[in-house]
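Can anyone check this?
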Amino acid sequence: MERKCSVCGSPMRRTSTDYRCSFCTNIELLDAKTIKYAGKPDADGNTSRTQSERRQQIIEIAVKSVISLIVAVIGIFIALRQQGDSEQITFMPDIMEEETANSNNQMEAGEGQLQIQSNAMKQALEDMFQKPFEHVTEQEIQTVRYLEVKYADAGDHCYTISYSFEDYRNYGSDGRTPETFPYNEEFSETIKTKTYIDEDSYGSLINCDVQYFSGVGGLCLNEYYWIDLAAFTNLSYVNAGNGQLEQALKAGVSAENITALKLNGEENISCITEFTSLKELCLDCCEPEVLESIVECQTLEELWCIDMPEVNNDDILRSTNLKAVYRYISSDEGKNY
């Protein structure tokens, strides 16, 4: 009959002298009178163990077995997980490459993107650069050398925007008229003009958009409010009609860089003396008292007047450093004095 271990109940293997348990290593003599348990000898050199000691060692063996089983299961799980990840990774390079390309495209589209507020200027930018205004960069806008924004005669919320990529200073002075001042007809041919209807915007919004055109050499606006001209370091010509000369100064225009001005002569232009580099001045509807301010402009060389009152031009020339005075009469060809 098969003998069972008295400790753990597992089958025992018989030898010539005893029975041995293959699971808990319990040893029982053939006569079953003395039960021995394999382990460290006690103080007397015996390997006999009490029942509680044998139970404790069996528990330790069982715990170790469970821990070994858990470790084995975890090892198998990790191996399977790594195998699955390696299979998934084979598909990742293409996905990562596509996502990287999309990210780069988004960065390129967003780099230098402008915060244009008026629909009229958005349309103008698309006409200027022949692409959606979202793709126009500030660096591109700064290549515009002349800009003019005016209220159009077509009605409310209509704006006429004129621009050129040419610098008027690179063109000669021959053939100039008060209408084209300070540039001539040759430069006029480089200017493109279009009227835009923008019912959702006001002039203030369009002027805010003008901020990006800091590379212009010539500028003409409806108003110089809501704009900072301090960054317009290339600016040499300003059209400040309708009493906007003080506006331009308050807007931070570098008066020492301005060499040409076009003003409405009916307004007080006493602040013109702040333009210490002014060489050319065009006055529309010049009044006699305005001439007193002109005398203070020691750098002024040319004076253009429309409907200038009957005064002795020689007196003006003698009291200033003017080299020439051009007097024009409305609806007339104009005469050089």
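Reply from J.R.: I decoded it. Residues 31 and 213 are 112 Å apart (CA to CA).
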